[in-house]
Amino acid sequence: MIASATRKRLAIVLSCITVVLLGVLLVLSRRTPDAPAKTESFPFGETLPEYDGQPSVIVHDNKVTFEEMHKESYTSLQELDSLGRCQRAEASIGPDTLTYDERGSMGMVRPSGWNTARYDDLIEDHYLFNRCHLLGYALTGIVDDARNLITGTRYMNVEGMLVYEVQIARYIQKTGNHVEYHVTPVFLEDELVCRGVLLEARSVEDNGKGLEFCVYCFNVQPGIIIDYTDGTSEREQSITRSMPSPSLHYVVNIRSGKFHYEDCEGVKGMSEKNRKDVTCTREELLEQGYEPCGTCAP
To answer: Quick one: 160 and 261 in the same domain?
Structure first.
């Protein structure tokens, strides 16, 4: 009887242990292991490269990720996503796609995250953002297709992307061959401005012997902090303290009490009797009681 009771107690204990272990295993199976934040659109399963003062960085050992290439010229643009953002653009660039014509207007296109902001003392061409072509205009002749235009900094456009577009154009001009070229804007989650663009290019007829690169260009502007969720921006605090506001040419409407940049739309229809041209700092106009125009945002 004693032995039988002992066996029963042991069976109950083992049953309890089994239930506890099963519960622990169930909890563990439902846990998601911690992992570094990644972006869905950046390839290779890697985190984004960090900006270190250079406009671009080599990734994937400078080797393209695509396999299929085309000896016939073509361009392929994907439709905008649900947030109005551009997707990957692909092309086979050849002598017949290069253009030397003056580019037409594309000011009617407002890419996702587009914001007009000027930093005259930090940027040579004044404006922070350009309408950046994924497939460069000189390479394809595509002007104002919204599927091919992103909100990109002047720095990324000129110091980053243009450098590699020139390499492609020169190779084609020299050889008459084609270059398979893919450009991927890299967005994080629901941000409207991309963090950068992935450029992949490989010469077709010589199977990459003449030209191949795989680089990531940073959508940054030195001295400026960008909010990638909506494209708003501000100066870095150190820049604000060390660089006083410059004296610039403004146009004041003495009737409305607003001041404008001279190329503002609001200046074109301004009466001469209400117009006053001044060269001074923004702060001086504010101290005199004038207000900045809401359109050109001086």
So the answer is: no
pTM over 0.85: no
With respect to residue 39, please indicate whether it lies within any of the assigned structural domains. Answer: no
In a domain, 12, yes or no: no
Are residue 75 and residue 199 in the same domain, yes or no? yes
**pLDDT tens-digit series, residues 90-142:** 999 999 999 999 889 998 999 999 998 999 889 988 899 999 999 999 999 99
Q: Which residue has the tokens 């009617």?
A: 108
CA dist 289 to 15, 26, 254, 271, Å? Answer: 83, 68, 11, 21
Distance CA 59, CA 48 (A): 10
**35 within a domain of the structure (yes/no):** no
Per DSSP, 84 falls in state S
Neighbours of 223 (CB within 10 A): 17
Mean pLDDT of the region 195-222: 97
